[in-house]
Amino acid sequence: MPDKERLFLTINETLDAVRMAFAQYPSQFNLLAVIWPMVFGEAAYIMRDTGNRTLWAKIHSQAKLIPASEDDLKQRILDQLQRSPPDPERLARISTQVFGASATAASGSRPASSPGIWVKTDMADFVCIQCGHCCRTLNYHDGCSLADYQRWQELERTDILDWVGTVRHNGRVTACRIWIRPGTNQFAQTCPWLKRLPDRDRYACTIHDVRPALCRQYPGTRKHARMTGCGGV
Ligand code: SF4
Ligand code: SF4
């Protein structure tokens, strides 16, 4: 299968992708109900009180039912996955549900690569129509990786680095956020690299060849495209 049709994610990348999916997708109670016992164990479940729309969660057989919002449930799942990452097989089953695409546990294609999951993306024939919706509306502020930052450093792209906010520990950059207006702590209202094409209702990325990995990987799957309003075909 050509690699365009599948995507390898390490365990940490998978957890990041689940976090991004939760942040970007609208209400997904049914999905949460399916993955809740996968994360917390077979005795755990969530339910919805149809009368007053309250959600209830049980974390294990001895625990009381507790009221929770959908955001609470998502955060509890993310915290649990972070605190106690599941083995790759279980993470693949969770990912299959979250990404709406078949995922299998395996190592990456490079020698000695770390364990993770392969996701069958079904995106080989995807065509972006340059509507600009993703760049204008999705939240990418936490989507800059250290690998992106290092690549821009190696390429001496100070024009891009000027728009990256960094967190440093002992002088080393440990996290990045994009896009911060130079000389301020304010996020740019729109991505500074997005340009509307003249005379057409189409958009282009002016740093296309070196755009962040998050942008290169969007949309990750057909479900990702559908759930986030992508107009591609
Ligand atoms: S960097 Fe490029 S691809 Fe990413 S949001 Fe901005 S314009 Fe879009
Ligand atoms: S939303 Fe989809 S079709 Fe529109 S620019 Fe982004 S990837 Fe392309």
Summarize the structure.
With 233 residues, the chain is of the alpha+beta class. Helices cover 34% and strands 20% of the residues.
Average pLDDT level? 89
**What helical percentage do the residues reach?**
25-40%
Number of helices: 9
Q: Which blocks of ≥5 consecutive residues have pLDDT under 50?
A: none
Largest sheet: 3 strands, antiparallel
- Share in β-strands: 15-25%
N/C terminus separation: 21 Å
Overall geometry comes to globular
Order of helices and strands: EHHEEEHHEEHHHEEEEHH
Domains (count): 2
Q: Can you tell me about this structure?
A:
The chain is an alpha+beta fold. It has two domains: 11-93, no CATH class; 133-225, no CATH class. It has nine helices and ten strands. The chain has helices spanning 11-24, 29-40, 70-83, 88-99, 133-137, 146-154, 158-161, 213-216, 222-227, and strands spanning 6-10, 45-48, 55-58, 66-68, 103-107, 115-120, 164-169, 172-178, 194-196, 203-205. It has a three-stranded antiparallel sheet. The longest helix has 14 residues, at 11-24. The mean pLDDT is 89. One iron/sulfur cluster is lined by residues 128-134, 218-219, 230-232.
